[in-house]
Amino acid sequence: xxxxxxxxxxxxxxxxxxxxxxxxxxxxxxxxxxxxxxxxxxxxxxxxxxxxxxxxxxxxxxxxxxxxxxxxxxxxxxxxxxxxxxxxxxxxxxxxxxxxxxxxxxxxxxxxxxxxxxxxxxxxxxxxxxxxxxxxxxxxxxxxxxxxxxxxxxxxxxxxxxxxxxxxxxxxxxxxxxxxxxxxxxxx
Length: 188
Prior knowledge:
- By secondary structure, the protein is mainly α.
- The chain has two domains: about 10-90, no CATH class; about 95-185, no CATH class.
- It contains ten helices and no strands.
- α1 packs antiparallel against α2 (about 25-30).
- The relative contact order is 0.09.
- The model has no long low-confidence stretch (mean pLDDT about 85).
């Protein structure tokens, strides 16, 4: 089976509006009928469909479009490297019910060991909410007296690399804030 672009009709609309590629080439590339592409050009087909730029999406290169514009017999070739869209998305992990009580403990551990992390960063690492993290940080959490700091890596809520990346980002933010404060003090 031939690879076809993501959102083929919207891609065909963009190619018709923005290139000099023949209807046959566009039809073959988008797995549409040539008359359907002609209908897109006439405005009879795909009236409500917004154009989808295949260059920005990484499905085509400008060089490929230019080459196909000059040679009407050359088939348009899909840029293969952009087809692996699903693997680039971060998959939401399911956390079993038995592990969910580890989230507040993991948040307490992160707050204790890395106070520079923002509530949002901790929430993202352990899979909780900012509000819950704020309550834990301020010791207003409903179960604060029973919390015991537990490493989120041991609980399998995040990886050590995730923690290191978040800490590095937080450290850069702290350094940036210090520089801004020093700059304001010098200006006064």
